[in-house]
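Re: beginner question about structure tokens

> Can someone show what the tokenized structure looks like for a real chain? I only ever see the sequence side.

Sure, here's an example I had lying around. Input first:
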Amino acid sequence: MVPAIALSIGGSDSGGGAGIQADLKTFLALQVHGCSAITCVTAQNTCGVSRVDALPPEALSAQIEAVLTDLPVAALKTGMLLNRSLIEATARALEPLTIPRLIDPVMVSRAGSVLLEPEAIEAYRQRLLPLADLITPNIHEARLLSGEEVEEVSDVERAAERLLVMGPQAVLIKGGGLPGLRGRDYLLQSSGSGQWLQHALVETAHSHGSGCTLGAAITAERAKGLPLVDAVRAAKTFVENGLRTGLAIGAGQGPLCHWHPLL
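And the corresponding structure tokens:
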């Protein structure tokens, strides 16, 4: 058996709900072999993050090189990169690649927690966005990257247009950060008009890692050969099903369930 292979470049979540751990669970659930390159190690659980330690950029580059020189990676995604050095190391590794590249610009959590050093925002704009087949910012990240206030539907569409000018082939702004847009995401491609994608609104307190999981599911479907729009729709269904049986573990916000969609 020779499965499709996907690579996740991002941070480790010791609680197992987001980051590299969520990505690898998603790849496995979608029958894709998952590889990883860890950028930083977080100490976190369902109640929050208590510490973040970045790896040296040389360590990140070595991990990516080790994977790409041996395994036929068919698609990749990035997650938490934390600082300029890690962003630049990631960009150098991605520049020669022609496979689908999803950039999840992990800067601010849906709840508003900052997950990126301030001087790294410009590095994202200059180095990574032009290399992306798709970027998947949440509402907070769309504000930071585009410079637009994002409060309603027209703001989301305008921010996506601003982001598209920065170089990615497509932009998917996740609407869950605004009460009126929960369950709705806006996809804009350089080759066509924008479209709002809807899925059922699942009321749950346990949605930790849903953004990582969406990006990983898109990456897995792209690795298997699905076109972008089909991959996004399939990924949204995967996340919706996972949210329906979110895991009530720990004292805080538990993660969605990654194996539920196969039951």
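Each token stands for a local structural state, so reading them left to right follows the chain. The radius of gyration is 17 Å.
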